[in-house]
Amino acid sequence: MNADRTAEVDGTRPATERGPSGTSAGSRAATTGGYVDEPMVTQTTTASESTSVDSEGRWVVGIVLALAAGSAGVVLSNTGAFLAGIVGLVYAGYVSLAGPPTAPLVVERTVAPAAPKPGDRATVTVRAENVGSAPLADLRVADDPPADLEVVDGETRAAGTVEPGAALEFSYDLRIPRGKHAFGDVVAVARGASGVGVRRTVYDAGATLVCHAPVESLALAGQTGIGSGRVQTDSGGEGVEFYATREYAPGDPASRVDWNRYASTGELTTVTYRESNAATVVFVVDGRFDHRRAVGEPTARELCCYATVRMADAVLDDQNLVGASVCYYRSSNAIGSLGSVGPGRGPEQTLRIRALLREKLGVDVDDLHVSADREAESGDGDAASDRSGGSGDIVRRNHELLDDVPAGAQVVFATPLLDDVAVRTIDELVARGHVTTVVSPDVTDGSTRGGTVERVTRSGRLATVAGTKRVRVVDWSPDEPLQAAVDRAGARWDA
């Protein structure tokens, strides 16, 4: 917080004041933001403080003049001058005794929603509560929103009188683009009733708002296992979508009999529906490369972790079993597994995957802002079992990569495709009967001669992999949302 920001507090306007249990219409609007019809997950920051106290010096000249007048009255035996000096000194004494206000404040900043999508509006509410026993005659508060964001509604500062137990509260709206956005501190300036004593407090309320484009869905292949899910299969049975009719068999439920056909032909037939089963999907993370397109951009390792977390969340939401494995160089021609998470379901599984990536690759995917509902229902993500299904075991020893992929499982391989070892790994997975989806972040830089060669070589690998049966490819540029790349590639897939 700089001095210019502190000075801004003086140019404030009145804001909503509320008591401990009362909420005004203005503050209710700030809570909901007016943009969603369902309860929003919010991010609240409670600030710590550092305080400076100033006593303004505009009364010093008056004190000097009062002393001079009193002294002159004594020396000159002038009663009027002496009394004028006494009055001035009495008033100066009152001012000095009044001093700056001492009532403590509790300052909170709340952002709703806490995980906005690109282009959304987020409502920021700052609340400064007087938790002392004395009123604050003149309180002025200013927030420091991210410099790269536009304030589209409301003000970032406010002023008012705050009684004990009440609060000064104001809200403003920000338009949130993709990326990370850092808030600064909150500054509060409180003046005493005399207007002389000033208490300036800087509240350390720094926080980061992360905005990403979530992956809503990932179209899986028809390779499924036992159990209900949302992957459409090419077989008839239980379901909701009509599949075919077959000859009636004793024991078929009456609700499945095609009574219209029976009425017209006298033939008993049974209606079958397209089955929707659960898939087992293992995410293989190629974290061997630290390449990046430019300084300050994410590395290939970070992008592969990002893609894994986003897509694993989407696949878990569709009631599928999800596991993960982290690659390393086993030899010059093959890669093994540094560690893995066995297939599992439920909100805790994504935390196990994040814990694996943090432990084995040093990538803290908390920075990727995984959905808050999963975070709220879990611990540290280092559990060994999953009550919702699947083992979810974390295996930490080095072992064969293919040992992490159960029979009948699909594979999502997140790799930058920067060497031929990745291509051979894909061939080996396909040879074992696993439908493989390759998600490849492009970290090549065509602005240099070496980068151009690397880009052309990677394009050749992409073409080779895309031409392999049972392989689907997502070529993803980090400049675009991952979902856009998935949708573009999915239009070409024959699931």
From TrEMBL:
**Composition-biased stretches (Polar residues):** 21-30
Region: Disordered; residue ranges are 1-39, 372-394
Every Alpha-galactosidase NEW3 domain range: 117-183
- Looking at the record, the residues that make up the DUF58 domain are 245-326
Ranges of biased composition (kind: Basic and acidic residues): 1-11
> What NCBIfam families does this protein map onto?
B_ant_repeat
Give the protein's recorded name.
DUF58 domain-containing protein
Origin species, per record, is Halosimplex aquaticum
